[in-house]
Amino acid sequence: MQVTFKGNPLNLEGNQPQVGQTAPDFQALNSSLEAVNLSQLGNETILLNIVPSLDTPVCAKQSKEFYSALKDKPVKLVTVSMDLPFAQARFCGAENVEIQTLSDHKDASFGKAYGLLIKELRLLSRAVIIIDKDKKVQYIEIVPEVTSEPNYEAALKALNVSGVTV
C-alpha cells in the first residue's frame, strides 16, 4: 500500500489487518522503557491512535482530539509513534493529557505487524485502529495523506457501533 507525504508517494511495509481479523501482536516500549505487547493492554476496547511524531501540529491535535473525546469513556486510548518514550512523556506533560503512549522506535515491531511502517522515512503512517475486548479489529483508517487528520467522527461512530457509548 502507498500513502503520500505532501503529495509524494511513500510505501508502507507489511500487511494491514482487516476488520474482523485478530489484531496482530507487537512489542513496543512504554514510558518506563518496558516492553509492552497487545495482550498487556488489557481486555477492553482499545483505540490505537497512530501518528508519525507527537512533535508535529497535526499529530498533537489528533492525540488531543481523541483524548478529549474519550477521557471519561470505557475505551483505552493508546498513542503509538516512533518518538522516543521521553519525547512522548514530555508531550503528555506539556499538553496535560493522560494518554498511554508506546514507542515503536526500537525495532518497528508495531509498524511492521500493522503494515504502517513508512519504508522511506522509518516513521509510522497516520492511522486509527479500534480493537475490541476480544482482540478483533473493528475499525481501521489509514489516512492517505500523512499530513492530513483522520476522520474523528467515523472513528467515534465505530466505537458506538462496537458497543461502546461515546
Give a written overview of the molecule:
The protein has 166 residues and is of the alpha+beta class. It is built from 4 helices and 11 strands; from the N terminus they run E-E-E-E-E-H-E-H-E-H-E-E-E-E-H. The chain has helices at 57-70, 85-95, 109-113, 152-161; strands spanning 2-5, 8-13, 27-29, 35-37, 46-50, 76-81, 100-103, 117-118, 123-124, 127-131, 137-142. The protein has a 5-stranded mixed beta sheet with strand order 7-6-5-10-11. Strands 1-2-8-9 form a 4-stranded antiparallel beta sheet. A two-stranded antiparallel sheet has the order 3-4.
Summarize this, please?
The protein has 166 residues and is an alpha+beta fold. 24% of the residues lie in helices and 28% in strands.
CATH class: Alpha Beta
Number of helices: 4
How much strand? 25-35%
CATH superfamily: Glutaredoxin
Q: What is the CATH architecture term?
A: 3-Layer(aba) Sandwich
Structural topology:
Layout: E1 2-5, E2 8-13, E3 27-29, E4 35-37, E5 46-50, H1 57-70, E6 76-81, H2 85-95, E7 100-103, H3 109-113, E8 117-118, E9 123-124, E10 127-131, E11 137-142, H4 152-161
Parallel strand pairs: 5-6, 6-7
Antiparallel strand pairs: 1-2, 2-8, 3-4, 5-10, 8-9, 10-11
